[in-house]
Amino acid sequence: MELLKDICGQFGVELNDEQISQFNIYYEMLIEWNKVMNLTSITEKKDVMYKHFADSLLIAKFKDMKEPLKVIDVGTGAGFPGIPLKIAFPELKITLMDSLQKRLTFLDEVIKTLGITDIETVHMRAEDGGKNMKYREQYDLVVSRAVSALAALSEFCLPFAKVGGYFIPYKSVALNENDKEEMQSGKKAIRILGGQVENIFTTNIPEIDAERKFVFVKKIQSTDMKYPRKAGTVTKKPLA
Questions:
Q1: DSSP helix, strand, coil percent of the chain (3-state; round to 5)
Q2: pLDDT tens-place string over residues 144-194
Q3: Which of 17, 70, 151, 173 could in theory staple to 189 by disulfide, Cβ–Cβ 3.0 to 4.6 A?
Q4: Torsion-angle region of residue 118: left (phi > 0), alpha (psi -120 to 50) or beta?
Q5: What distances in angstroms separate CA 135 from CA 31, 72, 105, 166, one per listed residue?
């Protein structure tokens, strides 16, 4: 796990011994629970450190995470990026939202074992959570590593951001000329939802070729209450 400390240090995230220990426990729990449920296809320790842990923390290269931000991780799955962010930046207040209870059962056990506070799990689909006033427009930062086109992902996530807050998806596809159509439709959807693309940052995890793009979407006005639309509609008929 010292390798994780070195990797993260290369992009400005300093981890102490306690945090490294927490990552190690998280890894061991992930592998153990993965034997009985589908949490990740990536299981080799070095790969998990690079492709899950370090990748989750890359956002800190461009966004100051050393503030008591209220953050929601939509479609958190096995806890990425929410759990690594909470370990590295304990002052964050994190909500982990997912549609599958068994994943949240795993995350509840991780939270309990690591002894971390100011973090909650919510069993809810994004389409429903975005309409729930307990969560709607309540967050300084909305993150997601979910694999969806930008237009659909924005409709799932932008309703959670408060005005002045940010939605920052972790995109693995290259948003360049080859993906011009996705970016154009994404920007249109973002405008409809009350957001504006402020910047796009491209980076990679040190020492491996995996590229990451962070799309900084600022919430400039409240999202119309008709969004997000009902389950199934968002992906079948994306805003464009």
A1: 40, 20, 35
A2: 998 788 999 999 999 999 999 999 999 975 555 557 778 888 999 999 999
A3: 151
A4: left
A5: 31, 9, 20, 15
| Residue 72 in tokens | 């929601």
Sign of CA dihedral 154, 157, 159, 164: negative
Residues contacting residue 201 through CB under 8 Å, at least 6 positions apart: 61, 62, 213, 214, 216
Omega before 169 cis (within 30°)? no
Dist CA 155 CA 235 (whole Å): 9
Task: Round to whole Å and give the CA distance between 61 and 70.
Answer: 19
Secondary structure of residue 212 in the 3-state scheme: strand
- Look up the pTM and report it: 0.95
Least Cα distance to 65 among 103, 15, 25 occurs for 15
- Give the chain's mean pLDDT: 93
Instruction: Return the SS3 of 193.
Output: coil
Amino acid at 167: F
Q: What is the CB neighbour count within 10 angstroms for residue 20? A: 17
- Half-sphere exposure of residue 145, counting CA atoms within 13 Å on the CB side? 20
Q: What is the DSSP letter of 113?
A: H
